[in-house]
Amino acid sequence: LRHQDAASLGKRNFTDGFPRLGGQDDQYLWVERESLTARGLTEQDLLTSVSIVDRDEMAALINRMTVVISA
To answer: What is the pTM of this model?
Structure first.
């Protein structure tokens, strides 16, 4: 998230790497719309461009993937 201080949470700062993950011709970063809404977040709060999908579309994407990285 923009303006989040990882050190204050006792976590390592990975924010420099995230912008390099998105914005490619093939978009491989998806965020579930319902999860953003439940947390009071918008796409503008995120560090890089992503594809926003609904819960059913996310489930279908996950089922098609060989590797899934989730947080």
So the answer is: 0.61
